[in-house]
Amino acid sequence: MPTSFWHHPLTAVRAAGFSVGALLLLVGVGVVLRQPLLIPPLAASAALVHGAPGLPLSQPRNLVGGQLLSALTGYAVLAVAGPGVWGAAVAGGLALGAMLLARVPHSPAAATAVIVVMQAPPAVRFVPLLALATVLLVAIGLLPGRTGQHPVRYPVRW
User: Fold this and answer.
1) What is the C-alpha separation between 101 and 75, in angstroms, rounded?
2) pLDDT tens per residue across span 82-97
3) Is residue 158 in some structural domain?
4) What span, in angstroms and rounded, lies between the C-alpha atoms of 88 and 81?
5) How many domains does the chain have?
6) Angle of the 123-141 helix axis to the 60-81 helix axis, nearest 10
7) pTM recorded for the entire structure
8) Range of the domain at 77
């Protein structure tokens, strides 16, 4: 695939459009559930899926696994250190290490660990909502390669 394809205006419009659609879907589902579903790391995840669908970081296993593992890492740090910026910094770094060891690196997910420690959302609500949001991002990620000319069919691997 020629690298110039990625610099084509239509590619940018398509990626932005699908990313906006995915994020609006998260907002809409959140409104229906009366729970926030869109958090900043998921916007970064959507950008990876639609802007760089061939990267290992963008693949479903990495997106879903990385986000959930990072949330769990955040909850572990929260249990030990309590909420706050110092623990949040530790959680972000430990999340990266955990993702690398589990072979599911997804850089936006480190921010999810930070959010968990800083905001201390109830795990029984936050983790299932995060799982739902990541699955929705993957589902929307499947559309561009199936609706027209696209250089990378997402996912490259599961």
Assistant:
1) 18
2) 999 999 999 999 999 9
3) no
4) 9
5) 1
6) 160
7) 0.90
8) 3-146
